[in-house]
Amino acid sequence: MKKLNTSLLVLVLTSSIAVTNAQQKKDTMKTKEIEGVVVTALGIKREKKALGYASQEIKGDVISDAGQTNAVSALSGNVAGVQVTAPSSMGGSTRITMRGISSVTGENRPLIIVDGIPLDNSNVNGSDTERGAGGRDYGDATFDINPDDIESVTVLKGGPAAALYGYRAGNGAIIYTTKSAKRGKTEIQFNTGISFESIYIRPKLQNQYGGGLQSSLPTATIDGKTYNIVEFGTDESWGPKYDPNLYYLGWNSFDPEFGNDYMKLKKWVAPNKDVDDFFRVGTTYTNNFSVSRSFENTNVRLSYTNTKINGIVPNSEIKKDNFSLNVNTQLSENLKADAVFNYVRTVGFNRPEQGYGDNSVAQKFYQWGQRQLDFSELKDYKLANGMQRSWNRTSWDDGTPNFSDNPYWTIYENTSDDSRNRFFGNAGLTYNFSKKLYVTGKVYGDTYSQMITSRVAVGSAALSKYNIQKRNNSEFNYEARIHYNDNFGDFSLNTFAGFNIMNRKWDVLNGNSVGGLIIPGLYNLANSKEAPRSSNASYNLGVRSLFASVSVGYRDFLYLEATGRNDWFSMLNDDQFYPSVTGSFVFSKILNVDWLSFGKLRAGWSRIAGGSDPYIRGTYASIETPFNGSPVYSMPNTKGEPMIKPEIKTTKEIGLEMNFFKNRLGFDVTYYDVKTTDLIIPLPIDPSTGYGFKRINAGEMTNKGIEAMVNITPVKNSNFSWDMTWNFTKNKNKLVELQGDLQNYILTNAPFRAQLAAQVSYSYGVILGTDFVYDANGEKVVDNTGRYKASEIRSLGSVLPNYNMGLRNSFKYKNFGLSFLIDMQQGGKYFSTTHMWGMYTGMLEETALGGNREAGVILPGVKENGTPNDIRLNAPTWGKSFYNTVDAQNVFDASYIKLRDITLSYDLPKSLIGNSLQGIRVSAFARNLFAWNLDFKGIDPENTSYGSGNIQGLEGGSLPSTRMYGINVNFKF
Predict the structure, then answer these.
(1) Is residue 586 a part of any domain in this protein?
(2) Which residues cross the membrane (predicted)?
(3) Where residue 480 sits, what CATH number does that domain have?
(4) 20 to 30 A from 369, CA-CA: which of 3, 128, 296, 614?
(5) Burial of 488 (0-12, 13-18, 19+ CB in 10 A)
(6) Residue 755: in which H helix or E strand, if any?
(7) pLDDT, position 339
(8) What's the CA gap between 116 and 180, in Å, rounded?
C-alpha cells in the first residue's frame, strides 16, 4: 500500500480489514487497494479480485499500536469467523479456532505460518492443568512471534483457502508476513513502550465473618491463662461475625522470634490488607530497534526486540529477546536469493499456578481460607530455621501446615523456571527463465529446545519435590515450485506445481523426585528420598507431498481456480489427495454503475484429510514404576489400529463482497458448510480384551455458519475521517454421530464434579452434570431437607458460543488518531469450581447473606407435594449445598461485551522535530478496560481456559483478569 501521509485510515479489502497509517487522497487509489494483491497459501501473492474463497488481512499496526505482546491473541475481535480465547495470565495460552470445532480428539487450531515457515504451536500444559486441576500455564510456542516485526497478517479461514498446505491446514491458516527493507530506502526505527497491568475481574469475597466452622471462637489455656483463638486447622469462613470488642490470638502469635506479634491479642475485624493487596501492578517493558538498508542489489533489515513482563503475582516474570534478519538480493539478472533468520530466547520465572492445585494462590484466596487474615502479616512467612509460618496451623501449638501454605511461601519457595531457545527461518532461490516462467526453491526450518523445572520446598503442606522436563523440537520443510503465468487474449493463466518434503522430530525427557526431598533448598534429582523416576519419549513423522494450482481468468471479471495436493504419511497407511475448486465473478466490471465501486460473488469447495499422531497405528507396551527393583511393563489402555484412516473434512462456501458510493460503504458475507467424517475416537471395548479403548474411524461432525463484515466511512474530509468496521460470526456445530449406540465421548473430568463431553446431537464440548428438578409449572423442587433436588446427569450446555462480534471505530483529526474495539461473545457455558467451593466454604460475598447469616435461607421453589417451600436452612448447610447436589448452580453463561482495546496516537509535526528525524509518534493504549454482561461477576469467561487444546470451559481456580494501560513512542530516523 502506498503511504501518502501519517494519517490513520481503516480500509476494507476483499474479505479483509487493513489498518494503516495512510489516508487515500483519491477514491481511485482506494479502489486499486480493493482490487490489489494479498498474500495467500504458500506465500504466493494473488490479486484479491481473483480469490474465490474467504480471507482477511490485518496490518501489523493493529497489533503493535495496541501494545500487544502476543501476535495470536491480538486477532480477537478483529477477524470475522475467528474465535480467540485469550486469558490474561502472564504469557498464558491462547486458544484460536476458525469455523468451529471439527475433530473430537484431534487438532482444531489453524496452522500458523511466519514468512512461509510452518511454526510449531505446541502447548506443553498437562491434562490436569487443562482441566483446571492445578498446574502452570506455560503458554503456546507462538508467543515467540515478535509483534513489532509484523508487516501484515492474512487469515485463510477454511479449506478452499488453505488446501494447498495439506492436512495441517484443515482448520485454516494464519499467515504472518514480517517487515523487510524497501528498495531504494534506508530507515532506522526505535520503538519503546511501557504498560501497566492491574487486577480487574475477580470473585467478590464476603467481609463480615471470619474463619472457622462455629459461630463463636474456641479457647485455649496457655501458661495458665485462657485465650480466644481461631480454628487454625480449618480453611473455611463460617466463623463468628466480626466484632471489634472481641480479642483473640492469631496464627502468628506463637513464634517468640517475632516479638511484635508474640502472644499479642488482636481484634476480630476485617483485615486492613486483604486479598487484593497481595497482587501488584504488573509491568511490561518493550524496546525495539530496527535498521533497514537498501544497497544496489541487496535489501537488509535487522531487528532486535527486548520484552520484560512482570506479572501481577509477585516474584513472577518473563523475559524475551527477539533477533531477526531479513535479506534479499539480486544475484544476477535472473537469479534472486532471499533469507529470513530469527532467534528467540524466552525465559520465564515462577509463572503462577492456576486451577485447583496446592500452589494455586487463586484457589487459596477464593475457594478455601479464612477471611480475617491480614496480608501485611502474612508477609512474615518464614522462621529463622527456614521453616514455614502458615496461617493454616495444625493447632495453636503445632505450626505444621494443615491444608494450605502461606501464599508468600508459595510464591517465594515453591517456584518454577522455564526457558526456550528457538531458531526459525528460511532461505531460498528464485530463477526467472522469462517474465512468464520462473522456479523457486526454499528450505524452511523451525527448531527449539525447552526446559521446565518446578519445585515444592521442604516444609510445605504438600510433599516436597523437584521436577525437570527437557523438550526438543525440530521441523524442516524442503519445497520447490515452478510457476507459469501468461495472457491469451481475453484469458489469463496463473499456474504452478511443486513438491514439499517435511520431517519433524521431537523428544521429551522427564525427571521426578520420589518420596520427597532430603536436604531443604537443594533441587536436584539426586536429593530425592527414594530413587528418582525418569522417562523419555521420542517421536518422528514425515510427509511427502506433491501439489499444483491452475487459475484461469476471463477479462478480469471471471476467475476459476483448481488446486490439488497429495500427501504420503509416515503415520498412516494410505496417501491422501486434497482437491479444491473456487471461482469468483467480479460483476462490478460489467455493471459499471457509479454507485457500485466493487462487487464480487465467490464460491469454493475443498476436501482435506486430517493427519494424526505418529505411531497411532501400533500398540506399544509402556514401562511402569519398578517393583522391588524389577522392571514392570504393561499394555496401554488404548489399542492402536493398523488400518486407521485420517479424518476427512469437506467444505463448501459461498460469499458476496460489495462496496458502494466510492467505497464509503462495503460488506463481505460468507456462508459455509463443513462436514467432517471418519472421526478418530477411542471406542470403549470389553476390558477382558486387555484394553479399555480401541481407536476407530467413526462418526460425523458438522459446522454451518455465517461470517460477515461491514465497513462504513460516515465522515471524510481533508482534516477529519471516521471509519467503522463491524464483523460478525455465527457457527452452528453439531456432533451428528459417534459409533453405533455410543452417545457420549468423555473428553475429561473437572477437578470434582462436572464432565466435558462430545455428545451426539449437541454442540461439541457439552458440560455434563446434575440439573435442578422442575415440576409441571417450571418451579424448582426441594427435597425434605429444604435443599434443591438434583436430576440425573444431563447436558448443561456447550462451551461453544452462539456468535461473536467485533466493532472497531477509527477517527483521524489532522495528526491525531483514535481507535477502539468493542468485542462481544454471546452464549457458551463454563463450569466454575471457584463458585462451587467459594459458596461451600463461606468465602464468597453472597454467603454473608447481607450480614445476617443467622437468619438462614429459604430456597425459592416448591416441595415435592407442590406446596411452596418453607424449610429454612442454616447458612453453612445452604452454602455446602453448592457441592455434590445440583451442578447447574455452578454453570454460567460465557457471554461478555468488552472494550478490548483503545489507542490514541499523535504524530509530531515537522516544525517540532526538525529534519534530523523522519517522524515521532506517541501513542497511548489500553486493553480490556471494561467488561459487561457477565453472568457470574467474579469470573472472566475467557479465564476459564488453561491451555489451547480441546479442553475448555472448566474453571478450576483462576487468577483475576487484568486491565492494561500503556504508552509507546516511535522514532523514525
Answers:
(1) yes
(2) none
(3) 2.40.170.20
(4) 128
(5) exposed
(6) strand 755-759
(7) 96
(8) 14
